[in-house]
User: Fold these one by one.
Assistant:
Number 1:
Amino acid sequence: MTIKYNDGNYELNEAYRSIRTFISVDERLKTILITSTEMDEGKSTSVANIARCFSELEDKKTIVIDCDFRTKSLNDQFDINRGSAGISNIVYNEKTLDECIKTEGKLDILTCGTVNCNPSVLLEMSRTKDLINSLRDKYDYIFIDSPPILRVNDACIIAQYTDGTLIVSASKEVDKNQVKIVKDRLEKVNANLVGVVLNKFQFEGNKSYSYYGYGEEENKKKRIFRRKKR
């Protein structure tokens, strides 16, 4: 069962609030891509929970967008029917934004949609970039879920027109050489790598901790330690 932010798990909630604090201090970060190195690292759960956490902020509007067209995981995270219209329907002129937006509390959600398309082609389209840019006028924070970088190139495409990229990495499940490849790929497209969430970190028996590294420059990165239950 997926544990949701604000479901009464104090330690989990505090871990996500720590991430919120270190992202929100940089006012230039408005569109934030969240990706991972490989599959099953907890990326989509992290995207959904980080977005939920940001939606708590007073006088701030937050939207989360699913651009992982091959898995459509955010439909499951927010219990939205997979037949619901989403970003692909907007890009291909089938629906308007207002027709596709779903809500959970104060959080707006835009799923992948139902158009059968090549995801890489859709993400490269000027209409997709224009849509993301237009959301800046309506929202204070825009979180985008994408496939793992070592699986397909989608994340590297999105990283070129977002303000920052956050990587979710599962402890002891990703080889350091894989992480280096991911870093190199992001650097080649001039992505702004703002931090890493270390997920599934085991410490002291049954308890797990979430580590978050953040910073604009390599030598100025900060690290936060927050304990959460598995």
Number 2:
Amino acid sequence: MFDTLSDRLDQVFKVLKGQGSLSEKNMEDALREVRRALLEADVHLTVVKEFINRVREEASGQKVLKSLTPGQQVIKVVHDALVAIMGERNEQLNLAAQPPVVVMMVGLQGSGKTTTTGKLAKRMLERHQKKSLLASLDVYRPAAMDQLATVGKGAGVDVFPGRTDANPREIATQALEAARRGGQDILFLDTAGRLHIDDDLMQELQDIKDLVNPLEILLVADAMTGQDAVGIARSFDERLNITGVILSKTDGDARGGAALSIRHVTGKPIKFVGTGETLAGLEPFHPDRVASRILGMGDVVSLVETAMENVDILETAKLQEKIMTSSFTLEDFLVQLQQIKKMGPLSEIMAMIPGFKQAMKGKTLEGDEGQQLKRIEAIILSMTPLERRKHQILNASRKRRVASGSGTSVQEINRLLKQFADMQKMMKMFGKMGAKGALRSGLAGLGLPKGFNPGGMKLPGMGPKR
């Protein structure tokens, strides 16, 4: 998401940073380009006007124009303006009520409502230890209840067995009673959708709202519909007073116009974004982190959080010990690769590293990064345990055997071994530095400023001396 906008803004800021000082004229030229970039990203016109006015007011002051680093100052102003229009901070799901808390999921047909309901229930179970009951109120769409049952099973949560011949209002009240009896913390109501907004749909949703008194009414909107998503959000909010929005299918949206517009137009926060078809593909929406990604600053806090959620800490500690003692092998590299795969698509992970996007401009990872990881994994798995521990014994005949077993070529195996040897050299250097030196070097390699500590995190080797 935001790839198009990010690339255009990067071009604008390159010009600004090349200026020794800024004048009112080149500032206006830059703002004109920013405005064009926002419109091309399908950002709502009123939001574009508000954004440009905010940036102009902040950036045209003498403090910025006479700054020693005016280009950097403008980037900060743009960053703050992006955060402001997207909502300042992440707003979590409100569960502050006597359980079961009722959460109504609403939206048009095809927006990804059912899958998103499962994603949210799975997240509540795994991250917050909240048990959920899912109930489908869609008696109109064929197999809608079967779809929710499948999603619920995949998420590891209970599903209320509704009947297609029942009234949605009746199913809602029965499901609420079942959630009370079952001791569930949350009841998710997956409501019916339509291909367009109509009075019958809205009246049904209003009736259900009056019957079960939901604490949250979340609109699931397809990010790829751009400004249409903003109009849909406004219509649902006028009739139901929604409490928040979940943007689905953001991995297929390169523009990001909906994410930049919804909060400003409706006043309602984007609480989560859907990032793929798997049930793990749901992330909280943090405006400040999103703004940093748009401007190519990376997102170290999210990177650390993703790693902590997906990486085996004990296994990582073992790998760190091996790095420090220069005993890192291909077997260890295989374990590391498998941990990286758990964190999600490599392109998304790399985008969180500050400066990576700019460094890779005009370049691509050789082939599809997911396929590359699979090929490397296949090569290592085709080796014997001894070959993984001592790769130096891989002679020509052994390499031919490994290539045949992994469906690759000897050239690919040689390339992997060369890269691994380079990695070992770097690790030996880190080992000589020690944990603190390695960390400092690693952060410097990412282009992070000295003393940088994202989100106030306590990083190894960066705490006060005792």
